[in-house]
Amino acid sequence: MSDADFLIIGGGIAGLSAAARLAAHGRVLVLEAEDATGYHSSGRSVAFSHYGIGGEAVRAMTAWSRAFFQDDPALARTASSLYFADEESRPRLDALGAAMSEFSDSIEPVDAAAIARLCPALRTGAGGAIAGLHDPTGLKLDADALLQRVARDMRAKGGSVLPGRRVASIEATGGGWRVRDETGETHEAPVLVNAAGAWADRIAAMAGVDPIGLAPRRRTIIVVDPPAGAEIAGWPFVHSVAGDFYMLPEAGRLLVSPVDEVEDDPCDAAPEDYDIALAADRLEHYTTVAVTRIAHRWAGLRTFTGDRVPTAGFAADAPGFFWLAGQGGYGLQTAPAMAAAVESLIAGTPWPDGLAQLGVTAATIGPERLRAPACC
Ligand SMILES: Cc1cc2nc3c(=O)[nH]c(=O)nc-3n(C[C@H](O)[C@H](O)[C@H](O)COP(=O)(O)OP(=O)(O)OC[C@H]3O[C@@H](n4cnc5c(N)ncnc54)[C@H](O)[C@@H]3O)c2cc1C
């Protein structure tokens, strides 16, 4: 048996970022089912921070988190992001631009000629992109470096991770929680943080806590060769405002997604042939890139709450049981803000400086809002 003050289930970016913060306040132990941390969603992200995704609370946490990434050159580099619209999707661009501009002064409307200069492969003009929103201040994150950084921060304060420890049962002890992993070892702590990503509702069920209705959705990425001779390194992270395509350069190749959100069970997500074909088809529809070979492909789960705002907070029905879940498609770019909020909610430190001014309070992200209303 090993004891801790804070027991965290899940060694993804959410669990490890929280662990790094909580380690300043007591003994932290992270239990990770897989043999390595970051094996699931956190290791399958395209790792970009930008304002085009999520609602107001997500944009606010994205804004708050930027300083953490920018303070360490190993974690992020500046890279631009471009949303484009064709004739049909043009009306959506203004609303998106207004929402993004609430958190950034850098969002520039661009016309077809500017789009062609930024990304020469995009089809522009009649039938193609006619207008866009360019943000030259996006951040390309290094997910691996980020996971290593928070794990290092946690260890420096005495915290530890046990990989290969899938939690098999959870029971309330009166003053806290006793967790048994699949090796048979038990671990106890007064506070149990549920950062199990797509599995977080299952962890709750194991503990006898009401689930919050998390929805894992699969997303597919294909990796293709760029056109011969094309200088792609400076291309932006390009998204259709219609929400059916994105593409970004990485290590000399193009990562492409059909922006799929396919319902899935918590699992080791794998790409399906249909979504791979869709990615290639959308690439050829929106750009002049011909898909001659798919060098690599993968899929990962993006797990959403009902209102698509990530959640952090104690369960009302189970003292000491803390939710940290529903990071959706923005778990990396919001991780520093979420971890700072977790520290405040669990260790009682002041609410992260500036986060309330950006519109995010404990109530915004608390799990209470996700509980099913009492029925008849
Ligand atoms: C294709 C794709 C692209 C993305 N792009 C971006 C992006 O550009 N920017 C961005 O910010 N976000 C992006 N995301 C989203 C981001 O990856 C997630 O929001 C984030 O990784 C979620 O982190 P997590 O720690 O909650 O989940 P995970 O990384 O899945 O971690 C949960 C961990 O819990 C463990 N676990 C589960 N059950 C148990 C158990 N019983 N016992 C012990 N451990 C358990 C799992 O093994 C897992 O390691 C993307 C996601 C995908 C799939």
UniProtKB/TrEMBL annotation:
Any single Gene Ontology cellular-component annotation: cytoplasm
Keyword Ligase carried by entry: no
Lineage top rank: taxon: Bacteria
InterPro entries recorded: FAD-dep_OxRdtase (IPR006076), FAD/NAD-bd_sf (IPR036188)
Record-linked SUPFAM superfamilies: FAD/NAD(P)-binding domain
Sequence ranges assigned to domain FAD dependent oxidoreductase in this UniProt record: 5-342
GO molecular function: oxidoreductase activity
Entry-linked Pfam families: DAO (PF01266)
Identification of the protein by name: FAD-binding oxidoreductase
Organism in which the protein naturally occurs: Allosphingosinicella ginsenosidimutans
Upper lineage: Bacteria, Pseudomonadati, Pseudomonadota, Alphaproteobacteria, Sphingomonadales
